[in-house]
Write a structure and sequence with these properties.
The chain is an all-alpha fold. It has a domain at about 40-180: Endonuclease III, domain 1, CATH 1.10.340. It has eleven helices and two strands; from the N terminus they run ββααααααααααα. The protein has helices at about 25-30, 40-55, 60-65, 65-70, 80, 85-95, 100-120, 120-130, 150-165, 170-180, 190-200; strands at about 10, 15. The protein is globular.
Length: about 200
């Protein structure tokens, strides 16, 4: 591996995953959110929605519009988004605070309807049922050693699609698993990984 591919020191001297230093906006997200366990139907619906909107774009683009997305999608409260009408869809298509992609907006609303139909707590249970055994996953030492798709993400995507979810392919599903802590892909030398392991001990 190249030196640039492993954990890199930030301004505070702490070693981080290199992507976590590639833009100022990423530092806090990397340090406090990415890879940490996310539970709750609404919180997971938010991540599913944002990962779907990210498809084909930079995550930074989504991160910088996150508050705009939250305002546009009623704080990602599933019950409220599931009741959105054609008028809401038109409103979203005119909202400059989000990514105005008709197919992704329609998918977000359709996914809320599916999530609502599952029943309380079921989206959380469904997604987390695909978490692999952490003990059997060696810590990655370089960014190039991290997969874009796994057997678990492929299975999760297949299950979600079968239930009617849209914009949830295996790559998007794996990004969701990484972001929500189903897998821990912080590099072996990253200070966040050390902190998370201490918290779990």
């Amino acid at each position: 591996m190249s030196a640039e591919d492993g954990a890199q020191p930030g301004p505070d001297g702490r070693l981080r995953c290199p992507w976590g230093l590639s833009a100022e906006d990423y530092v806090a997200y990397h340090d406090t959110e990415w890879g940490r366990a996310v539970h709750g139907d609404d919180a997971l619906y938010e991540r599913v929605t944002l990962e779907a909107f990210q498809s084909g774009l930079s995550w930074l683009t989504i991160l910088r519009r996150r508050e705009g997305f939250r305002a546009a999608f009623a704080g990602f409260r599933i019950a409220e988004v599931a009741s959105f009408t054609e008028a809401d869809e038109a409103r979203l298509l005119a909202d400059t605070g989000i990514i105005r992609n008709r197919a992704k907006i329609q998918a977000a609303i359709a996914n809320a309807k599916v999530a609502a139909s599952l029943g309380e707590g079921q989206l959380d249970a469904l997604i987390w049922s695909f978490a692999p055994d952490h003990e059997r996953r060696p810590a990655p030492r370089a960014h190039t050693g991290i997969p874009a798709v796994t057997a678990e993400s492929t299975a999760l995507a297949k299950d979600l699609k079968k239930r009617g979810f849209r914009f949830v392919g295996p790559t998007t599903a794996y990004a969701l698993m990484q972001a929500c802590g189903l897998v821990n892909d912080h590099l072996a030398d990253c200070w966040v990984r050390d902190q998370m392991q201490e918290g779990a001990g």
